[in-house]
């Protein structure tokens, strides 16, 4: 389908957990790419440190920057969640935030490569971009994503910081990205404001609504089995349909307007 970037403003935790929950229920081959400049957490968390950290973004970046080996080396830097199926793969993130600066030249190349995976290998990519407003943000990945899901909580502090983030992201996506309507909201848990109120107030659609589900979130954060019948995973499965529908809609005018596509090329 596409490249979906997940991020959040200050005061809205849950990016990695949400990306992992989507990965577990995604209905086609998928890669979760940990591109949070503050550090990856899936190897040490959900995978409980059972794998050595010799794979992932940093060695891949070194291979690309030294000898342009991104496309060649990419697959051997992935971890298969359910081997040997290769249906759900992880690109582990950095282990030290100090490494983030060295990744800056790689974000743009990675964004292009992720976009090519859909047609070349039939993989969708869920990019954990971490929190906004950190040093060395993976901005090119946010620009190039088909959809940017800005996660938030329906609480006043989260709403305030998310509103500011929306303004920044809109400008960024208009000037350099896929357009401001690639930005949608994901609301985690219940609070004083409904999704409809938030959507209206923020003038941004709420496309993902997820429950507070401590059991599933703890397993995804610290390791352990998860079941598709548990609330969080039931909701990510439903939200996938909405994301797919949104991406199809966003692509439609472009393809209809393109005479080559109309002629079936
Ligand atoms: N839907 C949820 N229901 C209950 N708890 C959740 C949910 N999503 C996340 N959490 C909890 O919130 C905490 C932070 O989650 P997570 O690590 O996903 O946040 P993050 O935004 O990736 O943070 P970081 O900046 O550390 O990368 C964890 O303890 C996690 O279990
Ligand atoms: Mg995280």
Blueprint (SSEs and pairs):
Elements: E1 3-8, H1 15-25, E2 30-34, H2 57-67, H3 70-73, E3 79-80, E4 88-91, H4 100-103, H5 107-121, E5 124-131, H6 139-144, E6 147-152, H7 156-176, E7 183-188, H8 195-202, E8 206-210, H9 214-222, H10 231-257, H11 259-262
Parallel strand pairs: 1-5, 1-6, 2-4, 2-5, 6-7, 7-8
Antiparallel strand pairs: 3-4
The structure holds adenosine-5'-triphosphate and magnesium ion.
Adenosine-5'-triphosphate (ATP) is lined by residues 8, 13-17, 36, 38, 41, 130-131, 188, 210, 212-214, 217-218, 221, 232.
Question: Characteristics of this structure?
Answer:
alpha/beta; 16% strand; disordered C terminus; eight-stranded mixed β-sheet; binds magnesium ion; single chain; 265 residues; globular
């Amino acid at each position: 389908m596409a490249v979906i970037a997940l991020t959040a403003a200050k005061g809205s935790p849950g990016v990695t957990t949400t990306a992992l929950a989507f990965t577990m229920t995604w209905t086609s081959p998928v890669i979760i790419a940990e591109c949070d400049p503050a550090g990856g957490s899936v190897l040490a968390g959900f995978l409980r440190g059972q794998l050595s950290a010799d794979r992932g973004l940093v060695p891949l970046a070194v291979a690309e920057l030294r000898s342009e080996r991104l496309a060649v080396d990419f697959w051997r830097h992935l971890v298969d969640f359910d081997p040997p199926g290769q249906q759900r793969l992880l690109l582990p993130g950095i282990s030290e935030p100090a490494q983030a600066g060295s990744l800056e030249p790689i974000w743009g190349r990675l964004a292009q490569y992720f976009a090519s995976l859909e047609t070349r290998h039939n993989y969708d990519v869920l990019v954990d971009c971490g929190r906004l407003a950190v040093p060395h943000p993976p901005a090119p990945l946010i620009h190039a994503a088909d959809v940017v899901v800005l996660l938030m909580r329906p609480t006043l502090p989260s709403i305030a910081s998310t509103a500011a983030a929306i303004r920044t992201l809109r400008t960024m996506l208009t000037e350099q990205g896929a357009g401001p309507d690639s930005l949608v909201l994901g609301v985690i848990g219940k609070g004083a404001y409904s999704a409809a109120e938030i959507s209206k107030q923020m003038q941004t659609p709420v496309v993902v609504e997820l429950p507070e589900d401590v059991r599933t979130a703890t397993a995804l954060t610290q390791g352990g089995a998860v079941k598709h019948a548990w609330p969080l995973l039931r909701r990510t499965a439903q939200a996938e349909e909405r994301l797919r529908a949104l991406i199809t809609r966003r692509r439609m005018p472009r393809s209809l307007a393109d005479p080559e596509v109309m002629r079936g090329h």
